[in-house]
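Hi P.,

Sorry for the delay on this. The queue was packed all week, but I finally got your sequence through. Input first:
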Amino acid sequence: MQYRNFGKLDWKPSALGFGCMRLPALDTQRGSPNINQPEAIRMIRHAIDNGVNYCDTAWPYHGGNSERVLGAALLDGYRDRVRIATKLPTWLVQSSEDFDRFLNEQLVKLQTDHIDFYLLHSLGGAIWRNNILAHGILDKAERALADGRIRNLGFSFHDEYPAFEEILNGSDLFTFCQIQLNYMDTEHQAGLRGLHAAADMGLAVVIMEPLMGGRIASHPPAIGEILAGRSPIELALDWVWSLPEVSVVLSGMSNFAQVEENLRLADASRPGKLTPADYDLVERVRKEYRSRIQIPCSKCGYCMPCPNGIDIPLNFDFYNYAHTYDDLGSARYRYSFFMKEGQRAGACIDCGICADLCPQHIPIPEWMKKVQATLG
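Then the structure:
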């Protein structure tokens, strides 16, 4: 196992972190709470036995059971060999007392007296201002740091870059952060810009979604022709591990074979490993994926706000996602889960105001009909 720097902390994490969001389940339901606990424990302990020393979980994973299973996996001496990361469900915070309520229950579920790395989960600008700052959560976190229930405070992020910068500069309590990053998402959310900004401030940066939830691990035939036998998983992970600012790359592993494969790849990982030929290959793959985009929306927002309440760029984003990655199922799931009914394409009344405002001259009402027919 390779080990890397973790910001300013005097500790080296394994290049591979065990993400506990996709543990093996007893059924096929997405994020099922019915975890196959014996197999999950076997996988986690095997990873630790082979050098993994960072395990990441969160309050909502597997319907609240991921923390329990990780806690069970870390009995019999395994707790002393790893550092645990878990997260405050920020969207559920309604008062300052919620911080201690969630944290104390998580300590019980994880069967530990402290959390090594505690994150404010899934922060964006609105949650940062309305749930964290408004309820004095940072004061509560500072007290938890002082009494030892948490050892380090950080945040995970899902929003656009300006919000990332706002949060990054919003507290001197943070020693690390967690961002989504892969070779397709270099300018999405925090992106490479956020990676460099956090690292420049001395924060450790943990990477989630290095494979885009598996979407760049399995690929359309045209991508396979470009790869010419090269493992898409190896290429994607090596791309992230090649970035020297990256501290840990999380992988959500669902079976023992995935654990074995990721351990092998992590052992061979190095900052700066990719060659110019490798980067050329990544660029050709990226261009092919982007050529599959159907709607040329730049997310400039000139079409917004829609007088009927539709989130036009997000509708287009999910539609393009389905075609780019040949993943209609995931696109439909995201469309129904992340958007309220009134924000979806089906609410379009064909007024045409948005099309008149669009600098890309996209016939938005016509595309809305296609989005609804495909994803609705």
